């Protein structure tokens, strides 16, 4: 057992008393803090549960005179929050598409699927099903253009597409920046630093509005895909530095030994350097994924109805304008579920890889 673990262990059963009630003044402060915390918890529970209105019947009138939260807005407007502008009669497709993405992510997190063929099959099938369900136009499904996509499905699509495009691009940029040719390494470094020096909002705005003026009509594509490319470029610029930091943590002697054995560059990178670099960069990589998921809300500035914009529309009508806190609390819960799960999965990966290195 390490010295840190020994120091962290309580030395005797009265450690709690000694820590918080060692002196009369410390005991008073501890009791006052505990009482304040209990009062805050009670007030939140009273507002959110005990005095809240949950029924969806009666509309806004059901919340008049209530002392707690008006969850009726969620019961009445949840379709707008979850599906945005997607046609009402086709919203089952958007819901099923969200399920497909979640299942795809869960399967990708299972160690039994950590092979090139399996992970590629999961992502190709998952993305294909998602795109078919959302857009339709084949096998009897009505065509729904990207301008009508919204809600949680659009948020997940932007996040997944950003990571799928940005992560391989980040690895390429990191390897190019380590090139022995100065014009390649310096040019790549200039691109990375230029992208990282700009806020994501300006990049999204440029790809959505400015880029079409610079490209011919046949190369412009839909605005959604241009925005995804801009988000992926921003993700790749930050992730490239994370990967490069992980590569710098790999002992130089390992690459030199591989070169002495005559192992080719791509085999050195794929079998020796990158596996160790990704282990070193895992905490920062998980953090970057978390940030990217939360940054999907920024696409509202270029006119997309992701889940936050759909929430704004849900309470934006005259009858529900008073219930904005409840709407934002519901959206925050959705973000919390995804981000909390991703963070805990990252902790699981750290423990698993630490065990593998013993």
Automatic annotation (TrEMBL):
<feature type="transmembrane region" description="Helical">
    <location>
        <begin position="327"/>
        <end position="348"/>
    </location>
</feature>
<keyword id="KW-1133">Transmembrane helix</keyword>
<dbReference type="InterPro" id="IPR000515">
    <property type="entry name" value="MetI-like"/>
</dbReference>
<dbReference type="InterPro" id="IPR010065">
    <property type="entry name" value="AA_ABC_transptr_permease_3TM"/>
</dbReference>
<feature type="transmembrane region" description="Helical">
    <location>
        <begin position="153"/>
        <end position="176"/>
    </location>
</feature>
<keyword id="KW-1003">Cell membrane</keyword>
<keyword id="KW-0813">Transport</keyword>
<feature type="transmembrane region" description="Helical">
    <location>
        <begin position="224"/>
        <end position="243"/>
    </location>
</feature>
<dbReference type="Pfam" id="PF00528">
    <property type="entry name" value="BPD_transp_1"/>
</dbReference>
<dbReference type="InterPro" id="IPR035906">
    <property type="entry name" value="MetI-like_sf"/>
</dbReference>
<feature type="transmembrane region" description="Helical">
    <location>
        <begin position="296"/>
        <end position="315"/>
    </location>
</feature>
<feature type="transmembrane region" description="Helical">
    <location>
        <begin position="121"/>
        <end position="141"/>
    </location>
</feature>
<keyword id="KW-0812">Transmembrane</keyword>
<feature type="transmembrane region" description="Helical">
    <location>
        <begin position="20"/>
        <end position="42"/>
    </location>
</feature>
<dbReference type="InterPro" id="IPR043429">
    <property type="entry name" value="ArtM/GltK/GlnP/TcyL/YhdX-like"/>
</dbReference>
<keyword id="KW-0472">Membrane</keyword>
<feature type="transmembrane region" description="Helical">
    <location>
        <begin position="92"/>
        <end position="114"/>
    </location>
</feature>
<comment type="similarity">
    <text>Belongs to the binding-protein-dependent transport system permease family. HisMQ subfamily.</text>
</comment>
<feature type="transmembrane region" description="Helical">
    <location>
        <begin position="197"/>
        <end position="218"/>
    </location>
</feature>
<feature type="domain" description="ABC transmembrane type-1">
    <location>
        <begin position="152"/>
        <end position="343"/>
    </location>
</feature>
<protein>
    <submittedName>
        <fullName>Amino acid ABC transporter permease</fullName>
    </submittedName>
</protein>
């Amino acid at each position: 057992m390490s010295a840190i673990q020994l120091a962290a262990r309580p030395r005797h059963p009265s450690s709690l008393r000694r820590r918080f009630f060692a002196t009369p003044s410390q005991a008073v402060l501890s009791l006052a803090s505990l009482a304040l915390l209990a009062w805050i918890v009670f007030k939140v529970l009273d507002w959110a549960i005990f005095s809240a209105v949950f029924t969806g019947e009666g509309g806004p009138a059901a919340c008049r005179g209530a002392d707690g939260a008006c969850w009726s807005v969620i019961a009445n407007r949840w379709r707008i929050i979850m599906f945005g502008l997607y046609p009402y009669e086709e919203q089952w497709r958007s819901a099923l598409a969200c399920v497909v993405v979640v299942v795809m992510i869960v399967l990708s997190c299972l160690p039994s699927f950590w092979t090139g063929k399996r992970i590629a099959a999961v992502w190709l099938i998952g993305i294909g099903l998602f795109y078919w369900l959302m857009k339709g136009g084949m096998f009897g499904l009505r065509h729904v253009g990207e301008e009508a996509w919204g809600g949680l499905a659009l948020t997940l699509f932007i996040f997944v597409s950003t990571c799928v495009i940005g992560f391989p691009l980040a690895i390429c940029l990191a390897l190019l920046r380590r090139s022995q040719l100065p014009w390649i390494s310096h040019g790549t470094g200039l691109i990375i630093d230029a992208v990282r020096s700009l806020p994501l909002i300006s990049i999204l705005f440029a790809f959505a509005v400015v880029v079409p003026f610079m490209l011919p009509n046949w190369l412009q594509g839909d605005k959604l895909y241009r925005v995804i490319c801009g988000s992926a470029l921003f993700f790749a610029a930050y992730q490239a530095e994370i990967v490069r930091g992980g590569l710098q943590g790999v002992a130089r002697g390992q690459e030199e030994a591989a070169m002495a054995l005559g192992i080719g560059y791509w085999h050195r990178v794929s079998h020796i350097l990158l596996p160790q670099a990704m282990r070193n960069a895992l905490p920062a990589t998980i953090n970057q994924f978390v940030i990217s998921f939360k940054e999907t809300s920024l696409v509202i500035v270029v006119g997309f109805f992701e889940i936050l914009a759909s929430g704004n529309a849900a309470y934006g009508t005259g009858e529900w304008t008073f219930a904005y806190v409840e709407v934002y609390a519901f959206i925050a819960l959705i973000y919390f579920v995804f981000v909390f799960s991703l963070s805990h999965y990252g902790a699981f990966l750290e423990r698993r890889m630490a065990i593998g290195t013993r």
